[in-house]
Queue: 2 jobs
Job 1
Amino acid sequence: MATDVKQDAPGSESENTKVAHGQNEQRDQQAKDLHAHADSADTRAARVPRPEMVDEKSRIIWEYVIPVVAFHLLIPLMFTSYFFSWWGVLFLPIGNYIFTSMGIGAGYHRLLTHRGFDCPKWFEYTLATLGVCSLQDSPARWVLVHRIHHQHSDHQPDPHTPRVSAFWSHMGWMFIENRALSKISAYDRYCRDLMQDKYYMWLQKGINWVLVYAVHTIPFTIAGVIAGLMFASSTAGVVQITAQFFFWGVIMRTVYTWHVTWAINSAAHMWGYRNYETREDSRNNWIFALLTNGEGWHNNHHADPRSAQHGHRWWEVDVTYLSLAFLEKIGLISNLARPNNKALDRKAI
Ligand SMILES: [Zn+2]
Ligand SMILES: [Zn+2]
């Protein structure tokens, strides 16, 4: 699942860029584009073609396809009597909180993509590393894709709109090369802040981020051995408990995290209700809001992307935001961005 950043041809944007763009310019650009794609209700949900840079020259990305297929093929195995474990089932909500909420929701999404709060660098790296351990690509690549999604939501070249197809938005878009996502000029334009950071640059090189994912499986295996030594009466029993820890703690949890996160790109752009009139099809999808601890309040999020609070109504439970509010209270994070009610009132339906 390595990510290559290809050098652009001479004369490309990256070569000619003399002036530092910076975050503010990115935001200005995104604000301008916000109105460029304003839809009327009847054009909404119209089909759009795949992004321009996906064409007959695009290759199938086998380094994504093979692990995704392999992980899924292992799932039925986990319901056999040898691998099934109630500890494993219990680990799903715990693992979902640690990796989906803190790694992807708080780390990759609300912090790295939208800068919805400030925190010490060590804590930022901790959240980002939890994101890496969810096997959803490197931080810079995830942020690049997501910032393009916000800029062009449900219009070409949004990398994963369901207006292409439901399967495309859920997972298909990852399996075919989109050359727009591997140009160095795209990284320069959309996530220069991350590309200037040594840790994120290191993760971006070769398969380093995959190696970090591989290393994180070691503590799960060790925990399994310890639990086996404590509760099993034979070597075979130790091996079985270790296997259960690995399969449920790593494989099953990774697949779960994949699907609930991918569903924000697919389900939360197709099904649910809207609190705000936005320029795309985003929806508040309560099922995936609950399964992701808050990311599913996606129409709220598109209406006010910088806000780290995605649940806007009292019953729109956003556990990720509540966790961040707690961390703000104890002083670990600061400047937690909350909904801009004045601007939101103008978009309210
Ligand atoms: Zn979206
Ligand atoms: Zn976002």
Note: Confidence is low (pLDDT under 50) at residues 1-23, 27-36.
Job 2
Amino acid sequence: MTSLLVIIVLVLLAVALWQLTKIFDLTQVGASSDDSQVASDNDNNVQGYIMFGFLAFIYIFTIYGLLKWGNLALHTPASEHGSLVDNLMNITWVLIFIVQVITQGLLYWFSFKNRGNKDRKALFFADSNKLEAIWSIIPSVVLACLILYGLYAWNNIMFVDKDEDVIEIELYAQQFKWTARYAGQDNVLGKANVRLIEGVNTLGVDMSDPNAQDDIVVSELHIPKGKKVHFKMRSQDVLHSAYFPHFRAQMNCVPGMVTEFAFVPTYTTAEYRELPFMVEKVANINKLRAERSAELVAKGGTALDPYTFDYLLLCNKICGASHYNMQMKVVVDTPEDYKKWLSEKTTLAQDIKAAAAAEKPAEGAAPTTDTAAKVIDTVKTVVDTVKAAVAKVAMK
Ligand SMILES: [Cu+2]
């Protein structure tokens, strides 16, 4: 609401300024001034220097942005292939930076050098093969190199050897949460289908499949350091995107198909927390939080909890109203801790059994919900009929 008011005030101010300049123009009527619509040499000079001013603004803002916000970018990658992605990204940035600095400079310099002048006539030529060759060949070669390097990186990252010893984990996306399913002892995920979703079996795992018997469903992802983890993604409803920023991994989750991504984590959560850049970052966040907490407490609110770093799995597709909150904590353990953590989890088969056992005594309660649903349906039908009748009368 406040921002709307601010926008309205700004618009009104702009209108007022515009009207003021019109009044100012009217007061100048009759005064000796050049009011011709053709630009004079003086006009051209002024425009030329203003353009240089804008060029300086672009350069200064770029440098300022790099100095002020450059440290906010993701730092050390936490996966084996991460440095490959970062390399590709950095090369692209450097290229863009160099090209932008040179082309913007040339653009403004030539506009200034060839600005309007009464004594100069523009030279007309239909085309220049040499020029066109230069501006076509150079970008093509540079882009081809970038794309080839990108393809090389992509193939390297996406290749999973069939015989390789990997950990199979399913990531299940739905509005608005993630669930993970571990393949268990056999390291084979059981079949699944959204049509089989029922009760605690929220992922629709086909429990008649022998491979599904030891599958484990959890809401916090644990993975071991130094071991390749092969993720298979599914989505229940709309497009989601599994995004692990620290591991430089992202893959769309598409309803009706299984997508995949594999990576090897290289730092445990504890190790990553100890990296100097992370210690500094967390200290900085907590400094800001402490200031904010002091403000909140002064207003009678509660203080914020101090921040500790955790890897996250985020959703990177705007998938609905609570998309911003669609995340899952990811913990990278040492292989021993990972084994211990997984061994303490119950399998989905056990969960289903336990749920069935817990439900039995409460069986009498089930019909009530059925009755309630039936009553609601009847009321809906009555309302629809009345609506139709009213509409008919209105038509007449
Ligand atoms: Cu999502």
Note: The first strand starts at residue 167 and ends at 174.
